[in-house]
Write a structure and sequence with these properties.
Elements: E1 6-10, H1 17-26, E2 30-33, H2 34-37, H3 46-56, E3 60-63, H4 78-95, E4 100-106, H5 130-149, E5 152-158, E6 160-162, H6 171-181, E7 185-186, E8 193-194, E9 196-198, H7 199-210, E10 216-220, E11 226-227, H8 228-239, E12 245-246, E13 259-260, H9 265-268, H10 278-297
Helix pairs in contact: 1-7, 3-4, 4-5, 6-8, 6-10, 8-10
Length: 300
């Protein structure tokens, strides 16, 4: 191992991973992209995982790779393959002398049927999807490995994100596109409440946590409850367009709760600030995204 600032990063080309990579480098870390270390190999293959670790010679592993195809990932069987691969990757990294592992978990691990105002890290885990179940088991396995091997570890549970590079079918880009073009869009109910965080802020937070020493599960979110109609108002104001959302036009899925908000007191105790940024960040994103749509379409 070459030192605490050499970090092996999986998923470095992804929506969140590339932001983690940028912030790690800005903090002085030497980032080893798993794709480079394996000549673009598939981490679902055991030999590729072994090569990534041996080539990287890193002291810290940040594991951001997973199946992420929008919509399809919730119940994709690939989640089970990534669960197995992730646990094996962690074990190999520990056996090679790694010091700290940071994995990316999800709000989908929690029991959404409790009606909780906020989900703290000690809230019950009862996932409703294959994705959430695989993430929960992977986080639990990491905790067990860390205890057995004396590893430092962090399991970062991510809630909802937005930012440049996300699929246009996701909620925020879909709203921006609809409002910019004046097209009606069916959405969930106006009172649907979510915890959104700018992906740039998320990447910064995870990078800082990776180079720190905080242990165990941690919600990495804004902690700010945002209603769907409030989000729509911010976007419409930024674009100077009317709200064209038809609230309630899309029925909630059977396991889809009205409210999902993180308790972020543990994150705040580290000095990392994520709260109170939604309006300014979302406005800037909506304007930039809306401008790009305008330029592509050639319309006003």
């Amino acid at each position: 191992m070459t030192g605490p600032n050499r970090v092996l990063l999986t998923g470095a080309g992804g929506f969140i991973g590339r932001r983690i990579a940028d912030e790690l480098r800005s903090l002085g870390a030497e980032v080893v992209d798993a794709r480079t270390a394996t000549q673009g190999g598939d981490l679902l293959v055991p030999e590729v995982r072994a090569r990534a670790i041996s080539e990287a010679r890193a002291e810290v592993l940040v594991h951001a790779a997973w199946v992420t195809a929008h919509g399809a990932f919730w119940n994709s069987p690939l989640n089970l393959e990534w669960e197995e691969a992730s646990q094996d990757l962690f074990a190999r990294f520990a056996a090679a002398g790694g010091r700290r592992i940071v994995g990316l978990g999800s709000v989908a691990e929690y029991d959404w049927t409790t009606g909780a105002e906020r989900f703290g890290e000690d809230a019950p885990l009862a996932p409703a999807t294959i994705y959430g179940s695989a993430k929960a088991r992977t986080g639990g396995a990491l905790g067990n490995l860390a205890s057995a091997e004396g590893l430092s570890h962090l399991w970062a549970r991510i809630f909802f994100t937005f930012g440049q590079g996300e699929p246009r079918s996701r909620l925020i880009p879909a709203l921006i596109n609809a409002f910019q073009s004046g097209t009606p869009i069916d959405t969930g109910p106006a009172e649907l409440t979510r915890d959104f965080l700018d992906a740039d802020v998320l990447g910064t937070a995870i990078a800082r946590l990776a180079l720190g020493d905080v242990e165990g599960p941690m919600n990495v979110a804004s902690g700010d409850p945002s209603r769907l109609d409030e989000i729509a108002d911010v976007i419409a104001a930024a674009l100077d367009r009317p709200v064209s959302a038809r609230f309630g036009g899309r029925a909630l899925a059977p396991n889809e709760p009205l409210r999902l908000v993180a308790d972020t007191r543990r994150l705040a105790s580290t000095g990392i600030e994520t709260a109170g940024l939604l309006r300014s960040r979302l406005s800037a994103y909506a304007r930039a995204f809306g401008t790009s749509l305008h330029q592509r379409s050639g319309t006003g």
